[in-house]
Amino acid sequence: MYYRLIVTKSYCVKTVLVSVKVMIFLVCPGLPLDTVLEVFGEFFFAYCYQHGYDKMLKTLGEDFETFIQNLDSLHALLALSYKSLVPPSFR
Predict the structure, then answer these.
(1) For the chain, what is the domain count?
(2) Does the predicted model carry a pTM greater than 0.90?
(3) Taking each helix axis from N to C terminus, what angle separates 33-50 and 9-27, rounded to the nearest 10 degrees?
C-alpha cells in the first residue's frame, strides 16, 4: 500500500536541514550550512541543465512560488510513465 506524503513548507525545510546537517557532520564537518545549501542548489541546477531537464523545468513557472505550485502537475505527468511513483504533494 502506498501513502501520499503531503509536504508542508515547514516539513520540507526541516527535512532538508536535517539531511544537510547529517551530510555536513559526515562529509565536511565545520562547513557552514548556508554554504552547503548553496553548493547543492548550484549542483542540482547544473545537473538539470546538463541532462536537458531545464526546458521542462522552465515550463513550471517564471518565479519560485509558481514553480513550487506547479510541481504537483509535473509529478502527475511523471506518474504516467513511472507506475510505482508516489510523489510528494506541495499543495
Answers:
(1) 1
(2) no
(3) 100
Burial of 57 (0-12, 13-18, 19+ CB in 10 A): middle
Cα separation, 21 vs 41, whole angstroms: 15
What residue numbers bound the domain in which 71 lies?
A: 9-81
Per-residue pLDDT tens over the stretch 31-76 = 787 887 788 888 888 898 899 988 888 889 999 889 888 988 888 8
Amino acid at 52: G
User: Is 91 a domain residue?
Assistant: no
Whether 1 is covered by a domain: the verdict is no
For residue 57, tell me if it sits in a domain. Answer: yes
Task: Indicate the residue type of 6.
Answer: I
pLDDT attached to residue 3 = 46
User: Could you tell me if residue 18 is inside a domain?
Assistant: yes
DSSP state of 84: T
Residue 12 neighbours by CB under 8 Å, 6+ apart: 90
